[in-house]
Amino acid sequence: MDWQQTASVGSAVWLSVALLTSAVAGMQGRGKLWWFFVTLIFGPFALFFLAVWTKPLQRRD
Predict the structure, then answer these.
(1) pTM for this predicted structure
(2) Rounded CA gap, 33 and 31, in Å?
(3) What gap in Å lies between CA 1 and CA 7, rounded to an integer?
(4) How many CB atoms lie within 10 A of CB 15?
(5) How far apart are alpha carbons 60 and 47 in whole angstroms?
(6) Model confidence over 12-58: pLDDT tens digits?
(7) Radius of gyration of the chain (CA)
(8) Contact 57, 24 (CB under 8 A)
């Protein structure tokens, strides 16, 4: 596996993690687009932060 294949696989994984994070953010009532861009920068660390340290937003009735 040369560096181009490695870069392609790595990019696909990084983008998949960003899409997964935006889906999780949407389920928690947070901004999907904002979390997508944060994850593009910080990668899996943003997903970990979103899933473990943040509580889902609650609706106001």
Answers:
(1) 0.79
(2) 6
(3) 10
(4) 13
(5) 26
(6) 999 999 999 999 888 888 889 999 999 999 988 888 888 887 777 66
(7) 14
(8) no
Give the containing element (helix H, strand E) for 35: helix 32-42
Which token pair is 47?
Answer: 């997903």
Residue 61 pLDDT greater than 60, yes or no: no
Residue among 6, 5, 12, 17 nearest 41 (CA): 17
How far, in Å, CA of 24 to CA of 30, rounded?
9
Q: In whole angstroms, how far apart are CA 41 and each of 1, 34, 47, 59, 60?
A: 26, 11, 11, 29, 32
Nearest one of 47, 19, 22 to 32, comparing CA atoms:
22
Tracing tokens 């392609």 back to the chain, one arrives at 8
Confidence (pLDDT) at 48: 86
